[in-house]
Write a structure and sequence with these properties.
By secondary structure, the protein is of the alpha+beta class. The protein is built from 13 helices and 7 strands. A hairpin with a 2-residue loop joins strand 3 and strand 4.
Length: about 325
Amino acid sequence: MRSFLGVVILATASVVAVGVMVDANGPPPWAFGFATPPPPAGTPPPAPPAAPPPAAAPDETLRTLPGSTLSFKLAQVRDAFGPADWYPGDHPTMPDVVAHGKRPNVRACSLCHYPNGKGRPENAGVSGLSAAYFIQTMADFKNGNRKSSDPRKANTNLMIDFAKNMTDDEVKASAEYFTQIKWTTPWIKVVETNMVPKTRIAGGMFLALEGSEKEPIAGRIIETPENMEATELLRDARSGFIAYAPTGSLKKGEELVNKGGNGKTTQCAVCHGPDLKGLGPVPSIAGRSPSYTMRQLYDMQQGSRKGMWTDLMKPVVAKLTEEDMLAISAYTASRMP
């Protein structure tokens, strides 16, 4: 471990540390699950509707998915304290906090991150990480070291609350569970393009509209489900995502990731391993959501994300532009996990 840390410290020390790069435009909305930038600081929140809409009648239809012998109602699929597990044979036995959470303040980990831990663009893939990294991340949420640069991102605040209400044993059990699950199959297909399907946003995730209308990609990554119904409606843990990236992103990202962009940053392999699949407690970054990776790079550059491992990343991200971070996110997502 000493030699590993020595390599990391030497690598990060070789990059000149500069002050936080101020982004006058604010967080890139697409990475945080929004279509427009956040309002200026101090803007009052929008007024709530005069009266909540009437509750819809419960949908009692039993739903099924190909490859699963089980059936669930929508209320069961979305149960925050015991969501549907379509493929129980795909993963080890879940600890209770992963399967059911802890009422009233901790939702089941499997609701948002799925029982296999691969997650979705609006949250994070948590399987295949080292237990040490997982535990440190939860400590950073709990201690106020990990926040979102976009104050509208509600699920970051939820994670802070979950971390504060989980015991050390519950965090450890979650970490050991997700660490067992090896992420060895593709989950995200990266496609370079100048035009993308028109989308709507639901819960921080881009969903393609019906029809074939398209719009310019305009310097974004649009990450959307391969199968809209399976993901949005039924939370299918076998149905992955397509990430549309601007043409040329992968080549630029490869240059930055593998060669450092002529001194602009540190080669990612120094800390994350030769195949970007992690090294010691440093996490794997191959094949993971580019929206998530972009958020982390941006948050670390802006100082919204702090903590033990973030200090090593500060000089790495200091000189990166938003376009650089997008390219890195697209390239790492395209690698085999």
